[in-house]
Amino acid sequence: MRSSLIGVFFALTTLPGLAQGPAQGPEGTPTRIRGTVEKLDGQTLVVKTRAGVDVPVGLAPNVTIAAVEKRSLADIKTGDYIASTSVRGPDGKLRALEVHFLPPGAGEGQFAWDLAPDSLMTNATVAGIAAAPQGQALRVTYKGQEAEIIVPPEVPVVAFVPGDTSLAKPGAAVFVFGQRKPDGSVSATRVTLEKNGVKPPM
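and the corresponding structure tokens:
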């Protein structure tokens, strides 16, 4: 089980490249697709996007399939390595939309993200935890820089676990990393699926 988890985490270390990645590469343009499973037909996963469009996604031979398990704010400790999507509030402070655990050093940094308008993804080490008026304040460090992220109590906190295609049931929430090729087709290299009602929040 531990080796499987390491494999899942290793596959996620390219998150920053995807976050930064509008550039066309030899294999296509990095893309992220969020939605629900319509069906799995062989090696083709049909995803209904948040815009209501059905998108066929080919599963690459080396595709990594993961799921997420629920965690809580209380599980986050100083020294943990986490990733969090956040947006700036009117006061200029970052407020988390979600938090997920990562292996130390995976994709360290802060990048533009597309979960919400003007959102950021921060992959960093927790340097301190303090109470805040609207939840908890996480002080995190990355690449010699520091940021504070306010995590409201209702924000989902999850950890990655290994998954398989049995989770690709119609209606299940899904988050796809892949490459959009010049002909418009999408090949997925990483797929995170809902498990036991816990949806990938990133």
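(Above: one complete record from the training split.) Residues 87 and 117 are 8 Å apart (CA to CA).
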